[in-house]
Amino acid sequence: MKIAGELSRRHGAGGTDPRLARIAPGFDAPFFQAGLAGYSDAAMRIIARRHGCPFCITEALLDRTLLAGGRGFTKADLGELHDNIPGGIEDHPLSGQIMGSHPKEMAASALKMAEQGARGDKAYRTLAYKDDPELWADVVETHLRLPGGEQLGRSGEVAEWQGDRVEESDSAWSCDAVDEAPDALAADSRGASSTLPLRHSATLPLSFETIDVNLACPVKKIKNKSRGGHWLTDPAGAMEILEAVREAVPAHIPCTLKIRRAFDDTPEMASNFEKIFDAAYRIGYAWATVHARTVEQKYIGPSRWTFLRDLVARHPDKIIFGSGDVWDVNDIFGMIGYTGVHAVSVARGCIGNPWIFRQARQMLAGNLPTAPTIPEQRSALEDHFKLSLAVTRRFRKGEEQTSKMMRKFAIRFSVHHPRAEEVRQRMIAVRTAAEWFGVLDTYYGDK
Ligand SMILES: Cc1cc2nc3c(=O)[nH]c(=O)nc-3n(C[C@H](O)[C@H](O)[C@H](O)COP(=O)(O)O)c2cc1C
Questions:
Q1: Which domain holds residue 430?
Q2: Whose CA is nearest to atom 12 of ligand 1?
Q3: Mapping DSSP to helix (H, G, I), strand (E, B) and coil, where does residue 374 land?
C-alpha cells in the first residue's frame, strides 16, 4: 500500500510520529477514537481498543458536572460522570475531555479529572469558588437544586468557605452510581466480580494520560456565557481558559485542545482561530485536534480538509490532528495523505464500526483491509453489550439502560450484516439482555 510506505518514510517503522507515544504512552498509530457524547463510554472505548484503536477520548464533560460530583447537585446539561470514568487497565491511553464557561471552574475540574478526585469533591469546589462569591451564587442558582426543585447548599458550603474548615468528602471522583474501579469492567463483563474501590484509583493506572479542553462543541451558548466552540468568538476568554487549565493540571500530564476551524466564515473568526491555536502551543498544549467545520455548520456540510492541509503546512513543527468526514478506513489515510495531519480523529465513522480500527492497522501494515465476518460481528456485539452492562450495572435499571444504549449502536452495527434491515428492526426493539442475545443467536449464529 502506497500510504503505508509513505508513512514509514515519514516517521520510521510503524508509520506514526514517535512524539505521540512519548506524550501518551501506547499511542502507536496515526488514528484514534474521538469523544462522542452519548456513545463513547468505557464500553465503546474498550471495544474500539480490542479492534486496534490506540487512543481514546471521553465525551466532553461539563466542568460543573464534574465539580458537582453527583451528590446533592442536579445534573448539569452535558456529559455523564459514569461515561467518562476510565474503564480499567484496558482503557488506556485515555484523554479526559472538559468543557465550560469559567477559567476557575475549568481549572478546578481539570485538576479533579487529572487527580481522579483524590482530594474529595469539596476541595475542588473550594478551588473553583472560594474567592468568587458571584460565580458561586450562579452555581447555586442554576445547579444546586434537587430534582423536585428544592435549592441546596447556599449556606452550607459557602459558610465553610468563609473561614470554616472544608471537609473532605469521600465521594471523590465517583458519583453515587459508580463506586467501584472500572478496572473491573472487563472482568465483570466476563462474569467475575470487582473489589477495588474507585477512590483508590489514584494509585492505579486509572487516571487520564492527557486532559483535552473542548473549544469545539456547537451546543448553544448558555445565558450569554461561552463554552465549547463559542469560545471562538472570544479569543481572550479562550486563552484564559487554556492558561488556567494548563496551570492547574500537574505538569507531567499533557493538556491538549479540541477546536473547530472557526466560529463562522468571516475573516474575524478566521483570525480568532489563529490566535487561540497559536496561544495553545505557546502555553504548552501538546497538540490540537482541529475539526475542519465551523461551529455554525455543526455537523452538516463538508469538513474543509484544505484548511487542515494549509494549517499543517504553515506549522510544520506542531503536532496537529484532523477531524471531520472520516466515514471509513480510506478516509483515515485519505486525510493523512492529503493534509499531513499527525493523526486522524475517528468519530461518526466508528459508531457501530470498531472494525475501522482493525482495517486501519491492516492498511498501516501494508495489507488490504478486511470486512468483519459474521462470527467477528457476533463477538463484538456480545462483548459490547456485556461491557455496557458492566458500565450501567450500578443503576437500578442497568439492563434497560444498556438495551437503550445498544439500540443507538444497532443502526450502525446492523449495516455490516447481509440482512441489515431485518437485523436493525430486531435490534432496535430490544429491551433486555436476553432479547439482545436472542437477536444474536438468530442472525449471527450460535457461539
Ligand atoms: C453525537 C456526537 C457527539 C459528539 N461529542 C463530542 C464530544 O463529546 N467531544 C468532542 O470533542 N467531539 C464530539 N463530537 C465531534 C466529533 O468528535 C467530531 O469532531 C465530529 O463528529 C466530526 O467528525 P466526523 O464528521 O468524522 O463525524 C461529537 C459528534 C457527534 C456526531
A1: 374-444
A2: 35
A3: helix
